[in-house]
């Protein structure tokens, strides 16, 4: 089993990514969850993370609050227009009773990496990369201790979803993304090129809805909510599903195909800030720094998700 720390801004798709992990203890051990400001402000993402743990019957998973907003002096861009005012609109989940940990999420990440042997901890990042970049700046010694960073972010062939050229997670904190991609730590990227193929078709939604667990019912309500927004936008047979691709990659990497390439982040152009400039065809001699995924077995993904949601309460 891989020991992972989730860094996240829940978010319905973040929530499903975490549920999928908590349902898969053979492959994934969730050491902790660190919240970041993103889809909605930190006060909500750190609360939503706890709602998800309790939904999965796992109030023992420690939840930390990290950074409120981007590392440089930029305003936090949020996405209530996609996720609703709470960030987790859709299911009716009770207020969490488990506590939020007192330590700052960035300090927790640093301590956790220093305490464990090198190569032990994988960071799964489902939101803006602020906490990870801040940890790397504060404690550069943690970089060689990270086994891998698996993140949802970026877009190249599928272009952007928050601006014409930028994907949301990278756009919110491009400086942080640039630091992470320049860190030398092995990075796996699940960009929109993949997540826009993992469509919530009516048959796939029905399969999730048919699973007789509380967690699956909540997941179905989350998927329904996201679908309403995205269907109108993309006019496809279902809405994209983003963050659970990170978890699915950890469980079944063979579902995905991609290439080791160089990816640089645009951090200053007013027109294209947050763009992930992915050298997919190797036209520069820049060193590969990421395994950039471009294809996915979407039905295999939904079969996995449906099967695993049946294992939760
Ligand atoms: C990403 O942005 C967020 O709104 C989603 O949770 C996902 O992490 C997709 O661009
Ligand atoms: Ca997210």
From TrEMBL:
Name the Gene Ontology biological process terms: purine nucleoside catabolic process
Under which name does UniProt file this protein? Nucleoside hydrolase
- Which SUPFAM superfamilies would you find in this protein's record? Nucleoside hydrolase
Record's Gene Ontology CC terms? cytosol
> What's a single GO MF annotation on this record?
uridine nucleosidase activity
The Inosine/uridine-preferring nucleoside hydrolase domain, residue ranges:
4-303
Organism field: Acidisoma silvae
Show the InterPro entries listed in the entry: I/U_nuclsd_hydro_CS, Inosine/uridine_hydrolase_dom, IUNH, Ribo_hydro-like
Name the domain of life this protein comes from: Bacteria
Keywords on record: Glycosidase, Hydrolase
Q: Does the keyword Hydrolase apply?
A: yes
């Amino acid at each position: 089993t891989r020991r992972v720390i989730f860094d996240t801004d829940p978010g319905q798709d973040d929530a499903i990514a975490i549920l999928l992990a908590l349902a898969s203890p053979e492959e994934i051990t969730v050491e902790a969850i660190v919240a970041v400001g993103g889809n909605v402000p930190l006060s909500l993402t750190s609360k939503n993370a706890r709602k998800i743990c309790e939904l999965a019957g796992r109030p023992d998973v420690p939840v930390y609050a990290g950074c409120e907003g981007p590392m440089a002096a930029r305003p936090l861009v949020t996405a209530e227009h996609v996720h609703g005012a709470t960030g987790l609109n859709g299911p009716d989940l009770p207020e969490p009773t488990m506590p939020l940990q007192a330590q700052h999420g960035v300090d927790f990440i640093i301590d956790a990496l220093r305490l464990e042997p090198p190569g032990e901890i994988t960071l799964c990042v489902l939101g803006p990369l602020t906490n990870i970049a801040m940890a790397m700046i504060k404690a550069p010694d943690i970089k060689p201790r990270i086994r891998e960073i698996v993140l949802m972010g970026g877009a190249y062939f599928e272009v952007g979803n928050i601006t014409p050229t930028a994907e949301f997670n990278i756009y919110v904190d491009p400086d942080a993304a640039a630091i992470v991609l320049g860190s030398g730590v092995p990075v796996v990227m699940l960009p929109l090129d993949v997540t826009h193929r993992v469509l919530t078709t009516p048959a796939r939604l029905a399969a999730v809805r048919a699973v007789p667990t509380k967690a699956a019912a909540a997941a179905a309500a989350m998927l329904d909510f996201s679908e309403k927004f995205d269907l109108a936008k993309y006019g496809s047979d279902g809405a994209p599903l983003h963050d659970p691709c990170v978890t699915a990659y950890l469980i079944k990497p063979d579902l995905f195909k991609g290439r080791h390439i160089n990816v640089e982040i645009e951090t200053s152009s007013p027109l294209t800030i947050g763009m992930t400039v992915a050298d997919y065809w190797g036209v520069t001699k820049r060193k590969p720094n990421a395994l950039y995924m471009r294809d996915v077995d979407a039905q295999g993904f939904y079969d996995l998700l449906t099967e695993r949601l049946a294992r939760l309460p």
